[in-house]
Amino acid sequence: MGQTQLHHEGLKSYKIDQDFKQNSQIVVHEGDTCEFLKKVPDKSFKLIITSPPYNIGKVYEKKTDLMNYLKVQESIIQELIRTLRDDGSICWQVGNYVQNGEVYPLDIYYYDIFRDAGLKLRNRIVWRFGHGLHAQKRFSGRYEIILWFTKSDNYTFNLDSVRVPSKYPGKRNWKGKNKGELSGNPLGKNPSDFWETTKSDWETAIWDIPNVKSNHPEKTEHPCQFPIELVERCVLALTNEDDWVYDPFAGVGSALLAGLLHNRRVAGSEKEAEYVKLTRERIDQLFSGALKRRPLGKPVYQPTGKEKISQIPTEWKKEKQDESLRSILVQ
Fold it and tell me: What's the CA gap between 49 and 43, in Å, rounded?
């Protein structure tokens, strides 16, 4: 899939507004999300996409009781729904809350909040990544969830923008009135609700996209950063050019950058001044052509086995040899 050319590419100047205006192109609000939303008219945003605070004690959040955390989030969600267009979508990306070693899947709790508010779940997408913390008393977590809700049955879904190559493009109907005719679509197939983005853009709703760790080209000081690529897929499928994309917990602006890359209007609110500064810097880099990012659909790196880091350390080999020798001697 080719990259969309920015209508504003090469412009020497652009404006970033602090507060929402209907004629704005870019809004970066430093401050509280609820305060920002008070100035946003009803039914303004086409896509609201975010990774809310997980309540796990990151440096930018205060860990609270799970039910209190969800109650606060519910009040914000009510305002988000008010500002969502009738044909709009909300994509809510969450992981797990862990307390005293017990795992609470946040998507399960959030589903009830959105469903009780009248929204309809269209997909529960699994975002799989290969790196993260190694657990000691349970299997290491390597996925998070994206809940895609719509406000009505009349919503935007640009299937042709997200089709993938068919596995059998020459397949033909074998019975019925269309017997002998090609059964597929020349643009490709529907990627289904089980996506995998390894060799081709979208194949199946596991999305295999690297999370943003130390060697990721997009890495900033944010400890829990959204990959731009993850948001791009939602932007392409669920919005049209010039639509509004909003991230209520904008972090370092990955959702805004994804929208700008595809000619959408973008808005984000973020209370941490340091992250707002980084967002503005990254937008500057986008317009100047200096932004480092992982291209949409780039294959996930697979080690060849020749790299030193992918080889079994000599210390481990020696330990295994010593263990084998001891086993022989015992016999």
Answer: 15
Task: Name the nearest CA neighbour of 39 among 87, 83, 84.
Answer: 83
CATH for the 16-330 domain, from 3.40.50.150, 3.40.50.620, 3.40.140.10, 3.40.50.300: 3.40.50.150
Domain boundaries, the chain: 16-330
Q: Are 12 and 53 in contact (CB under 8 A)?
A: no
Closest CA to 199 of 292, 116, 297, 118: 297
pLDDT, one tens digit per residue, over 257-304 is: 999 999 999 999 999 999 999 999 999 999 988 888 766 655 544 555
Tokens of residue 329, six digits: 């001697």
What is the Cα–Cα distance from 133 to 313, expressed in whole angstroms?
A: 21
Say how far apart CA 212 and CA 282 lie, in whole Å: 15
* C-alpha 327 chain-centroid distance: 50
pLDDT digit string (tens) for 86-98? 999 999 999 888 8
CA dihedral 274→279→284→285, nearest 10 degrees, is 100
